[in-house]
């Protein structure tokens, strides 16, 4: 659900970071055994697991897998949990709109070097790491903070219970959603999956069809667009590529019927795209 979300405050998230004499905001990530990035979040009073995972666009299974033994019904104020953020990370050295992103930093561990960092932790090469961090040499000390990527800001979670605020669809939207679900159920499997931001320019404008503009599939392709928070999926027909006038951070441009079927309330929301 995407109703008035504002990014949840994290103790180590968006904190002031001093790097090479400069202060700025950023996210400090760690890596699990599969080399996937995550941040640590401390639970605030009145929050539940749905609110937390919604703010990061995470399905329940992915969040619980990152926190073995976590009991959603016994979440405590002050409890630390791991938040996988791989789906939010972008490695472009300079996002088009940096206001939508926050820098991602990693604290070098003893024995790690810039070379091992570029091989294992980031898609940036050595020269990009040096340039982004204003380093003149690849010699670094342990515990030094190094920027390795950018992370997309989704928005903030409410502390009220989302279950008491269901998404209400019109009868027409429900019919379109049922048709899309039926089409989706008729499909067998998908070989490719991408995660990113879906954008609906006008939620109120109806086309009568579940259409999408998408750069990774040919026109006429039927793709599945999945909302991991509400666990809803809609099948949409690709009618063309995303116009160059749109920002590069958009993964797929969708019609209002697709957005309604996915339960979106704001024009931008996080999705998986499968085809």
| Major β-sheet profile | 7 strands, mixed
Number of strands: 13
**Number of helices in the DSSP assignment:** 6
**CATH architecture assignment of the largest domain:** Roll
Helix content: 10-25%
Share of β-strand residues: 25-35%
Give the radius of gyration. 20 Å
pLDDT < 50 stretches: 1-24, 156-170, 184-188
CATH class of the largest domain: Alpha Beta
Helix/strand/pairing category: alpha+beta
Q: Give the ordered list of helices and strands.
A: EEEHHEEEHHEHEEEEEHE
Overall tally of domains: 2
Shape verdict: globular
Q: If you consult CATH, what is the topology of the largest domain?
A: Membrane-bound Lytic Murein Transglycosylase D, Chain A
Report the end-to-end length measured between terminal Cα atoms. 24 Å
What name goes with the CATH superfamily of the largest domain? LysM domain
Topology:
Elements: E1 13-19, E2 22-31, E3 37-42, H1 49-55, H2 60-65, E4 80-84, E5 89-90, E6 101-107, H3 114-120, H4 126-132, E7 145-152, H5 171-186, E8 193-199, E9 211-214, E10 222-227, E11 232-240, E12 250-254, H6 256-261, E13 268-274
Parallel strand pairs: 2-6, 8-12, 9-11
Antiparallel strand pairs: 1-2, 2-3, 3-4, 5-7, 6-7, 8-13, 9-12, 10-11, 10-13
